[in-house]
Specification:
With about 200 residues, the chain is α+β, with helices and mostly antiparallel strands. The chain contains nine helices and eight strands. InterPro entries: cNMP-bd_dom, cNMP-bd_dom_sf, RmlC-like_jellyroll.
Length: about 200
């Protein structure tokens, strides 16, 4: 677990460093977990109890209901955080599912543990706020892409930002994430030069 915690520390400190005491308490709340591929970690309608830090594998959050096709909202993979963040932070029922696409190894902590440390340390609360701010910025950029860009522009942005996902994530989920159908995605794979 030392390597996983070192990876977590690197992610945390890259955004906002903690004191050694804060880090000691923060690192102590994480437990290693492992899941098989296609495991549902969070179901729509239940409240997200955990925050995950991915050390291996790929996960996705998705939305589905009786009237709309399944829509992939976000992917997570090492080294990044995972979970249904809005449900976790508000402790309200999730509208989304979270599933593993591959066998996944993660560190996991609970809402109560994070909340206790945010109450104890202003600096940890500040790190959470800064993290949410960066997530919000990314979500707004993604909204612009979904609403304003052509399928080819979205595909090129995906290739520029995260070219490795073409090997990690099934293309049907990437198409869903981009808001295009699978056949359009296949055509783009054939016609857009991947460098």
């Amino acid at each position: 677990m030392e390597q996983e915690l070192a990876l977590l520390r690197k992610q945390i400190f890259a955004l906002h460093p903690l004191s050694e005491e804060e880090w000691a308490d923060f690192s102590a709340i994480w437990q290693p977990v492992q899941y098989k591929r296609k495991t549902i970690l969070t179901t729509a309608g239940e409240t997200e109890r955990y925050l995950y830090f991915v050390t291996e594998g790929v996960q996705r959050a998705f939305y589905i209901d009786d009237k709309h096709p399944e829509a992939t909202v976000v992917f997570s993979y090492a080294p990044s955080f995972s979970g249904i963040v809005d449900s976790f932070l508000t402790q309200q029922p999730s509208r989304y599912f979270l599933e593993t696409l591959t066998t996944s190894k993660m560190l996991r902590t609970s809402y109560q543990q994070v909340q206790q440390l945010m109450d104890k340390y202003h600096n940890i609360e500040r790190w959470v706020r800064l993290s949410v701010s960066w997530v919000m910025m990314g979500l707004l950029e993604r909204q612009i892409e979904l609403l304003s860009y052509s399928a080819e522009e979205k595909f090129r942005i995906l290739l520029k930002r995260s070219p490795h996902v073409l090997q990690l994530i099934p293309h049907k989920y990437l198409a869903s994430y981009m808001g295009i159908d699978a056949s359009t995605f296949s055509k783009l794979m054939a016609s857009v030069k991947i460098s």
